[in-house]
Amino acid sequence: MPRWLYPAFLPGRQGVALLALRLVVGIAFLYHGSGKAADIAEFATEFQIPPLFAAAAAYTQVAGGVLLILGLATPVGAAAIAGTMAVATMKLMARGEAFVNPHGHAYESSLFYFVSGCALLLLGPGVISLDALLLARAQSGARQPTPQPAD
């Protein structure tokens, strides 16, 4: 696995913080994506996007959420969340929404999720993840010396 895709798996407090971030963002996107998937037409109408794009966004959010919760293919899950939230933030800004609006739509939360996805993409999943477990096994298996035939 390329080192740039998976930086060192951060241990200790940093690993726990990444686990907490992955879980909160992942669970939030299970709800966000599931809600959109439950009524694709309404979601597409509200944001004036084609239903195919609405469905892609909804299912991308669900899949990204699951991957973040598990810490499996974390760069893919983080990129999925960051990508959908980049589009959402741009759409909300283009509509003239405020950064923070206590009484309606704002782009604060989509921007927060975009930054969270980027942070997970750059920092990795942490040591408490399936990525760390599986890649550690793969690397330790790859480092095993191959037995030499006896002469």
Key terms:
151 residues; mainly alpha; elongated
Structure write-up:
With 151 residues, the protein is mostly helical. The protein has one domain. It contains six helices and no strands. It is elongated. The two termini are 35 Å apart.
Helix count from the secondary structure assignment: 6
Gyration radius, to the nearest Å? 19 Å
Helix content: 55-70%
Q: How many domains make up the 3D coordinates?
A: 1
Number of β-strand runs: 0
How large is the share of residues in beta strands?
under 5%
Average pLDDT value?
90
Low-pLDDT windows of residues? none
What is the approximate shape? elongated
Give the topology.
Layout: H1 12-38, H2 40-46, H3 51-70, H4 74-94, H5 108-123, H6 130-143
Short description:
With 151 residues, this protein is mainly alpha-helical. The chain has helices at residues 12-38, 40-46, 51-70, 74-94, 108-123, 130-143.
